[in-house]
Structures are given as structure tokens and as C-alpha cells.
Specification:
118 residues; alpha+beta; 4-stranded mixed beta sheet
């Protein structure tokens, strides 16, 4: 019996999360994408806290025009700016079981351009 898309993604996610973990010095950049929106957050897995979060629903980003990939790039750039203001430069990227292309790739590349290192 074949796996559903959600089951496949969950298996990949578990496999990634065995390896990737965030600390206070190097938090985990976790990405979630729904059909319409994209969300990103920096997580300290040692303490179990979210250091900062941003999404395409934020007022500054939701007012912009563009397709979903362009919006994802804006989210990545805004995340990098907020992280720099909080004193965070190094992160660990967690694609959350999604393939590294499209919106996830745009967000990651924009975050790198914004100054995050991963």
C-alpha cells in the first residue's frame, strides 16, 4: 500500500529531526508551508522555545504583491533581518520534510542573502 503525501513527508521529517537540532547559539530554522502561506521560525530545541517567528501573514509582507515564491523570498529576508537584530547569525536549516525547491528554496536563499549562515 502506497503512502500518502503527508505520511511520506512525516517520515522524511522524522529522519531529518534525528540529526538536526537547534541550540541557543545556533537555533533551528524551521519552515512550514501550507497551500497559500509560508511560515518560518527559529527554535531552541534545548529549552523548547521559539526565539522568533515570521510568516507571509505579517502585515508588511501580506501587503506586497507577487506569486508565492516571491512572497517566500520576502519572508526569508525579513526573518534574516529580525535574526540579525536579535544577534543570531548561525542557524541550522530544517526543511521539515519538504523538498528543497520552490518556495522552501526561495526562503532559504533569501535568508542567506540577508546574512544568515547555514
Amino acid at each position: 500500500m502506497a503512502l500518502t503525501k503527508q505520511q511520506r513527508r512525516y517520515r522524511i521529517k522524522k529522519r531529518i529531526r534525528k540529526i538536526v537540532s537547534g541550540t541557543s547559539e545556533r537555533p533551528r530554522l524551521s519552515v512550514f508551508r501550507s497551500n497559500k502561506q509560508i511560515y518560518a521560525q527559529l527554535v531552541n530545541d534545548v529549552d523548547g522555545t521559539t526565539l522568533l517567528a515570521i510568516s507571509s501573514l505579517n502585515k508588511e509582507i501580506s501587503e506586497k504583491e507577487g506569486n508565492k515564491s516571491e512572497i517566500a523570498a520576502l519572508v526569508g529576508k525579513a526573518l534574516a533581518e529580525k535574526a540579525k537584530a536579535a544577534g543570531i547569525e548561525n542557524v541550522v536549516f530544517d526543511r521539515n520534510g519538504y523538498l528543497y525547491h520552490g518556495r522552501v528554496k526561495q526562503l532559504a536563499e533569501a535568508a542567506r542573502e540577508g546574512g544568515l549562515k547555514f
